[in-house]
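sanity check this record:
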Amino acid sequence: MAKSARDSRIMEQKDTISQLNMVISSQNELIAALRSTVEECNSTIAGLREQVDYLTRKLFGTSSERTQNIEGQLSLFNEAEQEAGPLEEPAEPVIVREHTRQAKRTGDELFKGVPSRDEVIPLSEEQKYCADCGAEMEVIGKEFVRREFRFTPAKGEIVNIYRETAKCPSCSTASAMKRNIQFVKANVPEALIPYSYTSASVVAWVMYQKYANSMPLYRQEKDWKQMGVILSRATLANWIIYCARNYFSPLYDYFHRELLKRQFLMADETRVQVLKEPKRDAETDSYMWLFRTGEDGLPPIILYKYEETRAKFHAEEFLKGFKGYLETDGYQGYNNLPDIKRCCCWAHLRRYFIEAVPKGKEMDYSNPAAQAVQYCNRLFEYERQSQIKGHTFQQRKEYRLEKEKPVLDAFWTWLSQQTPKKGTRFEKAVNYAQNHKELFMTYLEDGRCSFSNNLSENAIRPFTLGRKNWLFSDTPKGAESSAIVYTMVEMAKAHGLNIYKYLCYLLERLPSTKMTDTALAELAPWNKNVIADCSGTM
């Protein structure tokens, strides 16, 4: 009996222990699940904090991508800086309470190219006679007082155009009356727009204000009213569209043909909203594409192209006939284009890693994203040194292989060892780099290949700045015309011309489809006659 009771108690205790073990196991599972949930929540919170920091920097932070080095940190990356020689002769420093600053530019430097004249202030009537004896004063010279910059606001005028008519005096005599009298009328330049009162100077000014100064047409409408002229924004838009399509378009096509003859090009694209596109909602994004020549040492060519989408076939169609290297960002729409070898932009890659650096960790070089930025910075520094040294294209290629190739090899090895957390911006940057590794190495093949796509970004920036003011285009025709006019403006800017003068120059000569490429070349901004006529101030 005693044994049986003891066994029964033992069995009960075993059952209790088994139940307790089950409870413990269940609790352990619950704890593990809760820990997993906490980790996921912490990861989500960290990702959201990262996103908030990123958006905050985008909204309120500086747009500069410059980074600083801490003395003693990552000395591996200091070789390029150490071998650098003096960049240029610095301006004479001016000491200002415990720090130095560059000397201010002189008036001659500030107003270089501005017409100058002398103005002599005459003596008053009282001053013309001696205060002591009353004798008339004798002017013996003039004294410099100061220099002033004066501005004359724009003004318009109405010009009534007549033409001379002449007749032959011999044919009009009585003896010659039987014959037809000969009349001659002066040749009158063709009107810019048929049955319109506008002129090349007016349309050029409207274009200059909108596409160079980013002034939308509704503000120009108000500006014209202040000058006493009632011009609606619809009228201004029609003038732009007519002149772009009829006069600028043939020259645009010529630039396009010349672009395709080059071997090194760049491309970029940005959004634009067009309200009245057929079969598309007004809120649908369209795209303004940018194609330009690279660093080949030849005159730059910059072309804007409006398209409804960002589809690959737009780039393929526009670049049909081009054979060579194309510098872009990582957008896959440029992949596998016929006869084209892609180069990927290192500025974009560096930007990915800069955006992945946590807030306040910019100078913490134990952070992997900050380390990646330093690798990129070293490559950029070598590119800068090559430019300073004035390398030829062949020398640049050799310099890159000598200096940059080892850095690249080290960077890719380092990158392969990284294990970024899922969903972080650092993971995004790492994946972006690894997925485009081959394209990031292409620039080593030729010294004319660009290291970054910054030239394209700089060329498309005026459009993005203008877009902030005028917000959208009303019609596809307006967007296409804007692309053409932006092309002319940026071409003038790239060649150092006065933008307004160049627009006037073209509208006075009226390029047409009847012109040969030889004739159109005489209107190109690199033509010596164009440079002579379109340089300087207005």
Observations:
- The chain has 17 helices and nine strands.
- The longest strand covers residues 264-273.
- The two ends are 121 Å apart (CA to CA).
